[in-house]
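[Discussion] Sanity-checking designs against the backbone

I'm trying to build intuition for which residues belong where. Below is a structure token string of 416 positions. I'd appreciate it if someone posts a full sequence so I can compare it with mine line by line.
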């Protein structure tokens, strides 16, 4: 059972100030989850989470997570600027970019961010653009497929990210020759994993690689960055990951592989996005039309511009009809937005309670990669983002776009 963190009564109050559609985030739950993550890795002295800004690029969210001890994982100029604006700078920024423009490396370097190189050729590129910093990280791609026991989780061999092992070792040697003193290793092999085995499996691969690097080159890593990829159960039948078990699994691999190799001082970093925010955000939208043709449709006032995942990946997002939580799900609907694209459907053939015009729908698990992926197709505008604060009050943390925003780039051509 998935339960919304807002009720019909709460939404009826909120819409007096902020009309639907809007994204709303649950501050208390975000903080509790961040604390749990920290506890799960408290066995590691240098542990730090660098929140993947791309998941929920909002300064208020970054500030809340910073208060809980998180830094930021940035991969663009705008993300660096947002982090800086919130006061997260220096080694609290991990710059895990790829296909990186020179000026972004320059700005990351200026902020003192830890640069995580995606490719061997970027060693020279970085030398040429802004020089090699003392602390530097490299991203690894083992190629092939990535499996846990007999299940294929993903295809690193098809992924554009990271370097091969040979390139990786060569990169560290050259970085050291160029003056680097502290080295990190990063890898991201599978996304949205709903298993407690992903991080421990990845950790073991990276820990063994760290030992091999030490034996072959004498270079000792200072940190290993397990990146993102811990998932959440989007469907109600799945069990959420147990972050304490995940932390314990990584600790076991650490004790087994790194400690005997004399690498027990190494820090563990993470760059989680989805796990930090997804369950703690809702897209709240209103049913504005019902249509009875070859199928039964409910038209809502949000569309794929506000949440792209169903259209882009066919992703499931659970829906709760507020005020009808206990009614039987005996109606089959397609829940649609208004884009002139037939994939603009938040749900297809979904069994839901009977929906009436004016009902408020909560689309679950939109706290990460939700608002963030928004775009302006069909001239549709991005919604507001709201924060349900710990005292129960609601604060706007980003206003909704207006048509003036939409036309703002047509300077000199248009004034609404
Ligand atoms: C997207 C991304 C993350 C976060 O991934 P989640 O699946 O949201 O945990 C972390 N690191 C890098 C480099 C990314 O691109």
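Best answer:
Here's mine. Compare freely.
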């Amino acid at each position: 059972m998935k339960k919304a963190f807002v009720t019909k009564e709460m939404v009826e109050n909120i819409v007096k100030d902020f009309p639907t559609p809007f994204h709303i985030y649950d501050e208390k739950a975000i903080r509790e989850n961040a604390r749990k993550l920290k506890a799960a890795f408290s066995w590691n002295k240098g542990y730090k989470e660098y929140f993947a800004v791309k998941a929920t690029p909002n300064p208020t969210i970054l500030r809340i997570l910073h208060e809980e001890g998180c830094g930021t994982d940035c991969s663009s100029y705008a993300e660096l600027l947002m982090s800086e604006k919130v006061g997260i700078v220096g080694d609290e920024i991990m710059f895990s970019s790829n296909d990186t423009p020179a000026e972004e490396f320059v700005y990351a370097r200026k902020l003192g961010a830890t640069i995580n190189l995606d490719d061997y050729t970027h060693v020279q590129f970085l030398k040429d653009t802004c020089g090699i910093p003392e602390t530097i990280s490299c991203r690894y791609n083992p190629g092939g497929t990535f499996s846990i026991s007999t299940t294929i989780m993903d295809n690193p061999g098809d992924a554009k990210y990271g370097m091969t092992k040979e390139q990786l070792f060569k990169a560290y040697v050259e970085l050291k020759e160029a003056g680097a003193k502290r080295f990190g290793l990063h890898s991201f092999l599978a996304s949205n994993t709903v298993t407690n085995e992903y991080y421990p499996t990845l950790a073991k691969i990276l820990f063994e690689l760290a030992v091999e690097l030490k034996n072959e080159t004498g270079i000792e890593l200072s940190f290993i960055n397990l990146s993102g990829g811990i998932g959440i159960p989007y469907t109600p039948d799945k069990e959420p990951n147990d972050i304490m078990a995940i932390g314990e699994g990584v600790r076991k691999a650490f004790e087994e592989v790194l400690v005997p190799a004399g690498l027990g001082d190494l820090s563990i970093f993470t760059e989680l996005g989805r796990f930090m925010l997804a369950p703690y955000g809702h897209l709240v939208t209103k049913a504005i039309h019902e249509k009875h043709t070859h199928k039964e449709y409910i038209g809502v006032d949000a569309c794929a511009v506000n949440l792209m995942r169903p259209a882009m990946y066919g992703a499931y997002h659970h829906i709760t009809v507020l005020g009808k939580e206990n009614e039987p799900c005996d109606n089959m609907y397609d829940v649609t937005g208004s884009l002139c694209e037939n994939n603009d459907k938040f749900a297809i053939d979904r069994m839901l309670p009977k929906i009436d015009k004016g009902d408020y729908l909560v689309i679950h698990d939109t706290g990460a990669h939700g608002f963030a992926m928004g775009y302006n197709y069909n001239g549709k505008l991005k919604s507001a983002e709201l924060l349900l604060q710990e005292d129960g009050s609601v604060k706007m943390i980003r206003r909704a776009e207006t048509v003036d925003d939409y036309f703002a780039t047509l300077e000199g051509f248009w004034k609404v």
